[in-house]
């Protein structure tokens, strides 16, 4: 496990359901300045594959947690989330927090088995313009 590289932003953005125009740049900036974690699998020929990832956003939340389809159910998301939390707390002096959608039972189970505790509800409004002229 190690911090993500700015080039990983495209993969993170393409897998994140809240991604929109400009998200790749925002993720790259977060990787460079705030924090992130990536869990990499080593293939039979020594090649690395990004298996799971998370970024620490400028607003203080760990977001965009994802795991590659064929790497799921191996504990990689847990490693990424906790690795990012420790890095941000110890190296950046930031208080890590995780925001999940309560209806996402997989995310809820992951957070429940970690050291995070529920503090409060957050209501996010996500606005995406459709049919916008560019």
Describe the structure in brief.
The chain has four helices and four strands, in the order H-H-E-E-E-H-E-H.
Low-confidence stretches: none
Reported for the largest beta sheet, the result is: 4 strands, mixed
* Strand neighbour order, sheet with most strands: 1-2-3-4
Mean pLDDT: 85
Number of domain modules: 1
Quickly count the helices: 4
Distance between the termini: 39 Å
The name CATH uses for the topology is Aminopeptidase
Structural account:
Helix 1 crosses helix 2. The protein is built from 4 helices and 4 strands, in the order ααβββαβα. The chain has helices spanning 9-15, 23-33, 76-91, 105-112; strands spanning 36-42, 48-56, 61-67, 97-98. The chain has one domain: Gcn5-related N-acetyltransferase (GNAT) (Aminopeptidase), CATH 3.40.630. It is globular and about 45 Å long. The N and C termini lie far apart (39 Å). Helices cover 31% and strands 19% of the residues. A 4-stranded mixed beta sheet has the order 1-2-3-4, sandwiched between helices. It has 134 residues and is of the alpha+beta class.
